[in-house]
Amino acid sequence: MGLKERLSRMDAQGSVSSEFRVYTSQGAILSIVTILLMIYLVSTEALFNFQLVRHEKVHVNATSPRGIEMEFDVSLPDVSCKYVSIDSVDPTGQSQSLHLDLQHHIWKHRFRMSEDNKRRILIGSKEKLEMGSTMLNEEQLEEVMELRASSDGFNNSSTDVANEEEDACGSCYGAGEEGECCSTCEDVRRAYKRRGWVLRDVSEIKQCKNEGKGDTETSEDGEGCNIHGKVALSSGGGNIHLAPGKDFGAGDKSESSSFIEMLFASFQQWNVSHTIHKLRFGPECPSASYQLDNQERLVTDTSAMYQYYVQLVPTLYKHKNGTSIQTFQYSVTEHVRHVAPGSSRGLPGIFFYYEVSPLHVEILEGYRKGWIAFFTSVCAVIGGVVTFMGMLDQFLFSRNEGRRMTLSM
Length: 409
Fold this sequence. Notes:
By secondary structure, the chain is of the alpha+beta class. Helix content is 30%, strand content 29%.
């Protein structure tokens, strides 16, 4: 017996001659059902095996991140923009030197709430908000009052200097850098705030007279303020806060003429009720949950300090295509602190305290199972469906054949 004959005897897939095959209508129906069932099952296996899933790994981070980019959008419906300042300090209480450029900046925008109190109506255009010059406690407020008392003639003298140097470039009244122009009243305010100086009476500033600022400052009463922007923070921890500025009450000679009056005015004008529309630390992560987005906090106590304690977790998100995102996820706890006037517990404000976790999270995109599992599943599906349908066809054919023979007898 030759090799070919030996191999043919090992054939487990024996073929049947077509003259011995029996073709029936039920067999045709079962064949169509077999093909459709295989297509459906193979498709579901492909969707299951090649579905993108995220695998998370957690480990201790050996290196600290170089910096943190914070993006925020906060609205204070009961605080006018003229009363709002923003600053950031490190854990030791020193102001952080924030990097502000074309990508990093902060804006404020006046608004009023609609009659149904459900939507914001923006007023005018947004304006840049300089960092710094916030008042966090009563001691700083008292220092500001002493500075104003000792600088009664400063604005007059600075106005005289401005008149001598007046030209096409608006004067900053001694607060600007060399060659800097202050064309608008807001430019003068920012220059003073950057220096940490107090602008006592805006009615003597020419830019404010031109824009009617000296007469319409109180028009902001009853308005709210939206603060939004993007800043670069230190990775060593600290806080960023919205609080009354050192120019609080400046420009209105009728109010805050004494420390006590200004102290009570700071509490009356600063209701910390707010809405956080957006809060991000780094680029947006596809799998992250941002629990503070579109959250509203109503505080009936006007003598309150609202504090958020944010734990940042460095996160590396790796896409299936090889690109990656270095960002931060966060968890947060909240606390409302009562700060009555004269209690020496601080002034009203909204504080975001943050610290970086030593843990590091890696999120990897990948297929649920992959090609090997898919081919294995396809073989099982096709073999199972063909075998089952063959057994069903044989059963139905045998039953019909036995019934036909019974009737013929």
